Amino acid sequence: MNFIQRMFAATLMAVVAASVQADTFVFTAIPDQDETRLQQRFGKVADYLSKELGVEVKYIPVKSYAAAITAFRNNQVQLAWFGGLSGVQARRLVPGSEALAQGKEDQFFKTYLIAHHSANVDAAKSLADIADQLKGKTFTFGSKGSTSGRLMPEFYLREQFKAAPADVFSRVGFSGDHSRTIAQVQSGAWQLGAVNYSVWDTQLAEGKIDTDKVKVIWTTPTYPDYQWTVRGDVDQRFGNGFKDRIRKALLGMSDKELLASFPRESFVPASNQDYAPIKDTAKAIGLID
Amino acid sequence: MLPALNPAHPFTVQSTARRLTGVIALLAILAAIALPWADLAMVQSEPWPELKRLATGLLLPYWDEPTILLESLGQTLAFALLAVTLSAPLGMVLALVFHCRVVRWFCAAVRSVHELFWGLLLMQVFGLSATTGLLAILIPYTGVFAKVFAETLALQDKTPARSISLKPGFTSQLALWSYTRIPQALPALLSYTRYRFECALRSSAILGFIGLPTLGFHLETAFKQGLYGQAGALLWAFLILIGTLRYWLQPRLIPVYLIAAVWLLPETIGFSNSGYLWQFVSRDIWPTPLLNGDLAGTVNWASRMWQEQAWPGLVQTVLLTQLALFLTLVITLVVYPMASKVVAGRLNARIGHFLLLVMRSTPEMMLAFVFMLLFGPSGLPAVLALAIHNSGLIGYLVARNSDADQRHRLDDPAGIARYAYLETPRQLPSLLAWLFYRWEVMLRESAIMGVLGITTLGFYIDSAFEEIRYDRAFFLILVTVALTVVVDGCSRWLRNKAGVESAGG
Amino acid sequence: MSANHQPAFQLTNASLSYGQAQVLQHIHLTIHDGEKVALLGPSGAGKSSLLNLLYQQRADRCALCPQDNGLVDILSAYHNIFMGGLDRHSTPASLWNLVRPLKRARTAIEAIATQLGLGTELWKSVDRLSGGQRQRVALGRALFRKKDIFLGDEPVSALDPIQAETLMQHVLSQHATAVVCLHSPVLALALFDRVVVMKAGSIELDQPTRQLTLADLNSNYITDVPADRTALVLPEKSSVVSSPEACVTGKIQR
Fold it and tell me: CA of B272 to nearest chain C CA: how many angstroms apart?
């Protein structure tokens, strides 16, 4: 029984550990590409913030936007690098939270629709021109909660077809990730897909894409995407003006190695208002009530 | 394995083999009915460049940071070990009162929710922490242990207990069983717990998919980003861990492992808000109209959920599960002899065992991905992935049983004749029993099929979590629970019908 | 069958041990074709081990009927008997036989079953048969091997004395040579030409039946009570003890 007592002690420890209040500033981030070695790469960002803010800063790696939102909501993290949609969802759940900064690229983000060569779809400037060619094909989004992989492409598809994707295409799936969307459309498993433009451009530059097999057929208009969002109560917890210092630290981040983790050229100021279009779109397609 | 009809009385079933074949035929008929409705389209694709990269990665694994690998292996082990150590005794206690209907329902309910969904639920309450990981395995496993332990105990010879008379009541019942059925069943219980530990290692690894720092965390990243060399390294590490289980899982070392496991549990960073539990239970999981006291609105909400998600999801789930169930049976009958020493020979059986290890330990997500590259997105990769994983598991159990069987005689046949006349008929009852156990597991596992564009219940639950709509997730989980209870009942009925009663799986 | 001077089995100073336990020691035994040998002796004397040794010497000529009859529970009596003839059938034929009984095999097995008194039970799975019926199935499997030597390990222990004798007689008539472990000295004297008595891994006595009486066997060597049925229900331990009184005690306890 000795052994069982020890086990109870273990659980108890785990529960106690979970409820200990640590005055550490915690943030999370899921980059839109290259999710390897998150801990090392963002550990350096944590060190940078720690130096700038004068408090201990830690980074928690998460797997999904939903997990990031959850952590943000239960105050496990106070700052998060969200996608456009996840930021909107998080700010709805945590009143008082605000968008502080976005990547320079995130002011004009866009999505590519891509097609396998067997789908015989032409590249076009306007979605209306190829609408008939798209109908009845198979189509994969990226992750369910992604702005560039799901929300915006779905919005433009709905706008064009006046119908849900499931009614336009013969089959609709969620590959879960931009890299996988590219791999699966390239292999012909899916005929069409929606992919984050910067992931596509990077992989194209790295020679990972065979343009005989898969090509971009349409580019969405631009929209705002990734941003830093902070909880409203950080000033109470870490002292007045803390939020402004975070903003300053983020905007002042100039080390190329740190920025490459996101990967962004630099950070520029952002506000909740910048994301109103995303919020409206999410409402329009029924992703938020 | 079709036994002959009795030519004299073709309609009287006097042969157990015939009765079991009847059950198998029933499963075949159900699968045949599901076949035309299920979505099994195949598309012509060009999978070879990607598959070549995948194969190269698996054959030439690389990993340049051993500390990360070791750390995640250690944490995978820690969660599994602690969860099983806690849930086995808890399951035992529940097993003793399993005759009580409320307990049975409770157990069916907790085990009908996939570990990943438990993880997602608990994450709302305990954040991304060791507690979440531990409970996500512990809770469903307690339900499974309770059920299997109760059924194992029920199979024991009742004579010793009959000769002791005691006052009714829980404590005297406990005392009675501690002296009779529990010691009688102990070898079976321990062997099952051991097997379950292997399952827990898998669950623990898979919890990495939602962010716990186990193997699955890095595996999912590497795999989805096409870093197949890294994925290969992680997969091999995991296969070796499970393949060498019997060498390192020594009873006397378990206390040492437990201390190490507690020490290895990941540190919880920054989580403080446990007061959030109440909000989650009292508000988040209930639909808004219900919270506003709007009964008509609630009914409206529920009926829309039912029409748009629950019912279509239910249909897809059942169709896929029935097909996968029958295919599992067929594949099991093909693969188990490869790992059985008495049929395949000692050396071949080693190869066979490795094959089964790969089949049962490769996450279904990866199997489904490979089949999707080959056949395109549809129910087909889903059915194949489920069937391969489950037949790897059942095949392993059958081969193990077959090799443990002591009923040998010097003039027993060898090879295929031995397979058809001896091993398969002898193992068929437990094979079917395991298959029926896996039935409800397959229901849960169909959750992975979202990537294939197959809208199972799991797909909708996952979507609800992704959209932070816990009311929908909760509703759909309740539907899953109800479905599991029904399937559990069917499985119990079929097992009685077939007269197969071997606990496990 | 073959000439008398060519022994069917020959053991010269044979010993056998499992780990520490010496099961057989210094066995000298020659059995010629045409001989019907009864093996007697208490449980644990090494009779089964000796039988296995003999089987391994002439596996191709022997039909074996071991003590735990090794039947396959869920298959019918027919299929269990057919198993004796697996080596005479091609694999596809054997597999098809599981689906539909092969015509010729069915005729032959029905005949065997009738002789063994199994006619109506042939299509029942053996898990639904009584102990005695299962022994008949095991005998059927041995008969269907169609070999000239029969090696039986208590093949009729679950049958009543009269049936045991009739069936034993039938089995002996179908084989030129036989070596059979028995519990019953009565049966040994009635049906066999030669009796070998074993004790603690050695041969205690080896004589033609005509030189022996029941009294010889009972008083000197045999510890189990004559009637096979009684012997069967005795607890395993009490059948190992060596005095007749102990067996009586065993009976009373029952």
Answer: 60
Mean pLDDT of chain B, nearest integer? 86
CATH number at residue C76: 3.40.50.300
Crossing angle of the two packed helices B379-404 and B346-361, in degrees rounded to 10 = 140
CB-CB under 8 Å, B3 with C145: no
User: Total structural domains in chain B?
Assistant: 2
> B340 and B235: one domain?
no
* CA-closest candidate to residue B343, choices B410, B426, B406, B402: B402
Reduced to 3 states (helix: H, G, I; strand: E, B; else coil), residue B428 is helix
Question: Into how many domains does chain C fold?
Answer: 1
Q: Name the band, by pLDDT with cuts 50, 70 and 90, for residue B160.
A: confident
Residues above pLDDT 70, as percent of chain B: 91
Is the pLDDT reported for residue B328 higher than 80?
yes
Q: Is C119 on the interface with B (CB under 8 A)?
A: no
The architecture in CATH of the region A2-107+224-284 reads 3-Layer(aba) Sandwich (3.40)
Q: B240: which residues sit within 8 A by CB, 6+ positions away?
A: none
As a whole number of angstroms, the distance between CA A225 and CA B104 comes to 49
Please tell me the predicted confidence (pLDDT) of residue C236: 35
C4 found inside a domain: no
- Domain of residue C43: give its range: 34-253
Ramachandran bin of C11, using left for φ above 0, alpha for ψ from -120 to 50, beta for the remaining angles: beta
Whether B82 has a pLDDT exceeding 90, the answer reads yes
What is the side-by-side strand order in the sheet with A98-103?
A: A57-60, A25-29, A79-82, A227-230, A98-103, A267-269
Q: Are strands C62-65 and A138-141 parallel, antiparallel or unpaired?
A: unpaired
- B8 belongs to a structural domain: no
Residue C5 lies in a domain: no
| Cross-strand bridge partners of residue A173 | A140
CATH superfamily of A110-219: Periplasmic binding protein-like II (3.40.190.10)
pLDDT of residue C251: 30
Residue range(s) defining the domain that contains residue B503: 22-60+290-505
- List residues in chain B touching C: CB distance below 8 A: 1-9, 14-18, 20, 407-413, 415-417, 420-422, 425-426, 428-429
Question: pLDDT by residue (tens digit) across A108-157?
Answer: 999 999 999 999 999 999 999 999 999 999 999 999 989 999 999 999 99
Q: What is the CATH number of the domain that holds B493?
A: 1.10.3720.10
* B104: Cβ contacts below 8 Å, ≥ 6 apart: B98, B147
Domain co-membership, B44 together with B79 = no
Is C94 an 8 Å CB contact of chain B?
A: yes
pLDDT of residue A162: 94
| Structure confidence at residue B181 as a pLDDT band (50, 70, 90) | confident
B143 and B176 fall within a common domain: yes
pLDDT tens readout for residues A63-101 = 888 889 989 988 889 999 999 999 999 999 999 999 999
Residue range(s) occupied by CATH 3.40.190.10 in chain A: 2-107+224-284, 110-219
Q: How many CA atoms lie within 13 A of A198 on its CB side?
A: 21
Compare CB distances from A63 to B86, B217, B452 and report the shortest one's residue. Answer: B217
Asked, for residue C27, whether it belongs to a domain, the answer is no
Q: Which two tokens stand for residue C113?
A: 């079953």
Whether residues B350 and B455 fall in one domain: yes
On whether residue B249 sits in a domain, the answer given is yes
Query: Strand pairing of A98-103 and A227-230?
Result: antiparallel
Query: Residue B326's pLDDT is what?
Result: 96
Instruction: List all residues 6 or more positions away from C240 whose beta carbon is below 8 Å from its beta carbon.
Output: C42, C43, C44
Residue C28 inside a domain? The answer is: no
From chain A residues 167-186, the ones with a CB under 8 A of any chain B CB are 171-177, 179-180, 183-184, 186
d(CA A45, CA A27): 10
Rounded mean pLDDT, B348-363 = 93
ipTM at complex level: 0.86
